[in-house]
Amino acid sequence: MHVPSERDQLRPDPRVALAAQGDRAATQGLLLELLPRVRNLVRYLASGDADVDDIAQLTLVQLVRSFRTYRGEGSLRAWCDRITVRVALAYLRRRRSRERQTCELAPELYAVSSSSEQPDDYTLRRQAVHWLDELPNEQREAVVLHHIAGLSAPELAAELGVPFETARSRLRLGMNKLRERAARTQGKP
Question: Which of 57, 109, 122, 163 falls between 20 and 30 A from 37, CA-CA?
Answer without folding.
Answer: 163
